[in-house]
Amino acid sequence: MTGIFLKSAVIVFIFTTSPFAQMKQDFTPIFKEIIRPPQNCAEADAMTIKDSTGKELILSKLITDQKIKFETIQKDISYSIKAVENDEQRMPMPPGDLGPLGDIQMPEDFRKMKKIMDKCRSASDEISAVKDKLKNEIIVLQDSLNRKLKLTKSEDRESRKILADEFLNSVETEFDNEIITIELKSAIIDKAVKQYFSNKDLLIPPLMITLLKSQQTEINAAIFLLKITEECVKIGSKFYFEN
Questions:
Q1: Per residue in 149-172, pLDDT tens?
Q2: Which of 2, 9, 131, 213 fits as disulfide partner to 149, beta carbons 3.0 to 4.6 Å?
Q3: pTM for the whole thing?
Q4: Residues 52-80: b if buried by 16+ CB within 10 A, e if exposed
Q5: Confidence grade of residue 23 (pLDDT, cut at 50, 70, 90)
Q6: Spatial contact of 21 and 216, defined as CB atoms under 8 Å apart
């Protein structure tokens, strides 16, 4: 389960992601287009629509369409990974002689490719680390908000909205700070994908899977970031509506 649930004065922020990726997908524009979290409750409210009763808050089509887009990428890549894994046993090993210590002496092209794959794995690890850092930062902000909300009366809606505004502004600031690193590391993966998927002679399953799993990290990060926006919109619009 993921989400923020408003129960009395307490907000719960839980995170999950899905393990898929997209072959030949350029993630640079995806990270650029991710809808940012609202800076305050009024902005959050503007990112929702009301149902026919005027009471239930519904996420804007812009957010839901982006969510569907990311989920489609997830499904497509899930199939790609399975297809490569199914073919892996039928592909020959890279040519080369065994060295004196049993190491495979690979041609220069394969050594260069291995170097790029190592960079992809490192970039993927750093993206995951940034995700964890951002999650922890938001949890700290959430805990602080919960403590402050408990000290306010439920009927003091203006004060509660001000606290929610402060929370949203802080989350948006942390979001913008961390997405910069994610974009930089994602560019490393994108470069490798463009370079090696364009050469049919180098489409060897183990290396393709490394690239795909690196992109798996990218799409998971995109979904994670969009989920932050989605849940912040729910929080802000809730406080705005009640005020």
A1: 999 988 899 999 999 999 999 999
A2: 9
A3: 0.81
A4: eeeeebebeeebeebbeebeebbeebbeb
A5: low
A6: yes
